[in-house]
Amino acid sequence: MNKKLRYNSKFVPVSIDAGNEYMANGIFIFNITKMTEHINKNPQKYECRKISVEAYRNSFYTVNEEYLPEVDLSVPVILAEIRPGTYNCIDGRHRLERAYRDGIKELDAYLVSSRQHMKFMATKEGYKAYVAYYNSKIDDDERDARRRT
Question: In degrees to the nearest 10, what's the CA dihedral of 25, 15, 22, 45?
């Protein structure tokens, strides 16, 4: 059973400084630069494993074709737990696309749990909405489980 996230009214969003890379998924905005720095300094705190390129590659986003040849496939992509047990790519879409085009089946990825990636959210509104969203998915899963029994 998944544990619900606890809302912290004292949450302080991480800043997005000049030159920082960030990923916006609607109201959820993550500072990728600061997350990557933290992962690189503390790799033992993050699960790293091989993932299927096909499973995480999404053909519905645009690719910078000029940048694609420069992509370093040795750098793990970052997958964030967006709901209990479900991960989305928040950093490394060009790596996934290049690997796909080169016929590479697997890449290394850091799996960043909800509690780990929340620390890198750039807005308080996004943080608050994320806690509510994540917890609602736990409620949905529990309701579905009760219906099946």
Answer: -90
